[in-house]
Write a structure and sequence with these properties.
Blueprint: H1 2-13, E1 38-47, E2 50-64, E3 67-76, E4 86-95, E5 101-110, E6 113-122, E7 127-133, E8 140-145, H2 155-161, H3 165-171, E9 176-180, E10 183-187
Antiparallel strand pairs: 1-2, 2-3, 3-4, 4-5, 5-6, 6-7, 7-8, 9-10
Length: 188
């Protein structure tokens, strides 16, 4: 289920990347995104030759001191909920200078499936504190070593959007490091 969610979000973000540095340095004045940005994607379900309008995903960026707060909300339309109901909320707090996430919250409800995840990224101590469970009330803590710049599902999209596209067209490949469900995953 988690990998379907990753693919779903990456498809709708329309991102491209060049590669990751140990300490990415983003220039906020040249950022590919900023305060007040709002994106809305409509979700469709393909039933043979019929495309049914099923829901929407909203992305919104708010500035909070030295962080960007990216809020993502996905939900099915009421007319579709007899088939499958979705109520997903994601929050990512991204450092404006480094582009690295500081806090990530995922609260998803998809049919009978429930998942809550909170990750606190402490790059100074090189540790991420991951709290996961079915709901907020039954969380388990896992400490994960941050030996590379790891991103969450939301912050990675905004980091990728800030990359140099001409350089990417030469490389045609990127390595990627993601924290999700108490695991660090790398695609090299």
């Amino acid at each position: 289920m988690a990998y379907k969610t990753i693919i779903f979000i990456l498809l709708f973000a329309g991102t491209v990347s060049t590669g990751f540095l140990i300490k990415p340095d983003l220039n906020p004045t040249e950022s590919a995104f900023g305060n007040g940005e709002k994106l809305v994607y409509k979700i469709f379900y393909n039933w043979n030759f019929v495309w049914l309008s099923a829901g929407e995903v909203h992305f919104e960026i708010k500035e909070e001191d030295h962080l960007y707060h990216v809020e993502v909300t996905g939900r099915t339309y009421a007319s579709y909920e007899w088939f499958y109901k979705v109520r997903d909320k994601y929050h990512s707090y991204i450092d404006k200078q480094t582009g690295l996430p500081r806090l990530y919250i995922r609260d998803i409800q998809q049919g009978n499936y429930r998942r809550y995840e909170k990750i606190v990224f402490d790059y100074d101590k090189q540790i991420a504190y991951s709290y996961t469970g079915r709901t907020m009330t039954d969380l388990k803590l896992t400490e994960i070593t941050l030996d590379k710049p790891y991103y969450d599902m939301v912050s990675c999209m905004y980091y990728l959007r800030s990359q140099n596209l001409p350089q990417f067209s030469k490389l045609k490949k990127t390595s990627f490091h993601l924290l999700l469900d108490d695991k660090n995953t790398s695609w090299d």
